[in-house]
Amino acid sequence: MNATPRAKSLTFAVMTAGLCLAASACTSSGSDAGGSDSSSSAADNSAASQQVASPTASATGPACTYKSYGGGVPKLDLTDGKTVVGFSQSESTSNPFRATETKSIEAQAKKLGVKLIQRNANADVNAQNSQIEDMIAQGAKALIVAPENSDGLGPALAKAAEKKIPVLTIDRTATGSACKDFVSFVGSDFYGQAQIAADDLADATGGSAQIAVLTGTPGNNVSTDRTKGFQDRIKAKHPKLKVVASQTANFTQTEGQKVMEQLLQAHPGINAVYAENDEMALGALQAIRSAGKTPGKDVKVVSIDGTQQAVKDVASGQLAADIETNPRFGPLAFQSLQNFYGSAGVQAQIIIKDGHFTSANAQQALDQGLVY
Ligand code: GZL
After folding, report:
1. Which ligand 1 atom sits nearest the alpha carbon of residue 95?
2. pTM, entire model
3. How far does the centroid of ligand 1 lie from the alpha carbon of residue 305, in Å?
4. How many CA atoms are closer than 13 Å to the CA of 67, on its beta-carbon side?
5. Ligand 1 centroid distance, CA of 70 (Å)
6. Atom of ligand 1 nearest to the CA of 276
7. How many angstroms does the Cα of residue 220 sit away from the middle of ligand 1?
8. CA 30 to centroid of ligand 1, rounded, Å
9. Which one has a higher pLDDT value, 267 or 27?
10. Ligand 1 atom 12: the closest Cα is on which residue?
11. Which atom of ligand 1 is nearest to 170's Cα?
């Protein structure tokens, strides 16, 4: 088993007038979002090649414009200082992923002179529906939505459709069809992230372990794909990685600690953890220490998001690896909307290529300010 972290290829790119400018394919058609093999879900250990801006993205699917969306919607100039764009955030900004995502949307709106209103649903699906309807009542003419739940946004999407208001979904999908129920999905390859996590855990444990999985909030494509991608990869490549327990901790640190405490008591042989986000991983680390065990020695932990504290924990050896979920959606989201109102159009899926933090590059990434 390869004991050293695997290098993969990834580049972030600086945003330009298009979606991005990069040596690698970014907004061209043709996706490598399949995640069918972890190597196709690029992640690069050479932090120096990563730039703290919007990530490189690969776009697939037919292009959608205001003329074709939902039977046609009014053409808008989002930067006229009068047109209102609504941003619906799903979860509390106590999670650095959410805080960075919200700041990125706010910063780009300010840069473009977009009149932005926003609400935060605090992980409550019903609240998110009513908040979106409220923003429509407040005059929002286009919406950027980070769905709490993939299936639960029906009422809000129906209201937006009724009012001919386009909805761009970021970071999680909403049930429905691109260019009909929503403009496009902009987000990470969650299935591919999970495949890399499985490989990282195999590397960290020599390919044999008793694993506890902390899954994300049920009902969204992130949790579904991060669970399935991990399961598929260990089945295909790592037969001695055994999942002995799997339980949701709803993407929070508090629940991550509580659930991990319970699982360690129920399964004393647990020597590895796969956490579907950093908040839960940080909680799990606290539980592991409280149980008198040493993270990185007695229990190997792999996580997803790439937040500041978690990457510090990778650098110190508390975490074995952390796959980034880049939350810097601002430039990508507004460029997509401007393409929607232009002739270029927006393709159905815009999949971000994320970073990958291991013992080989974590400290360098932190030193270079590449970590959110
Ligand atoms: C991913 C996002 C996930 C993050 C978690 O795009 O939906 O939700 O990985 C967050 O930190 O809770």
Report:
1. 11
2. 0.88
3. 7
4. 6
5. 28
6. 9
7. 10
8. 25
9. 267
10. 251
11. 6
Tens of pLDDT, residues 251-301: 999 999 999 999 999 999 999 999 999 999 999 999 999 999 999 999 999
What is the distance in A from the centroid of ligand 1 to the CA of 203? 24
Q: Residues of the chain with pLDDT > 70: what percent?
A: 85
Angle at the Cα of 10 (from 9 to 16), degrees rounded to 5?
Answer: 150
Provide the residue type at 35 as one letter. G
What type of residue sits at position 243?
V
51, pLDDT greater than 70: no
Q: Which residues line ligand 1 (CB under 6 A)?
A: 91, 95, 97, 171-172, 187-188, 222, 251, 277, 279, 304-305, 325
Among protein residues, the one with the nearest Cα to ligand 1's atom 8 is 251
Domains, the chain, in order of start with CATH, read 23-189+327-354 (3.40.50.2300), 190-324 (3.40.50.2300)
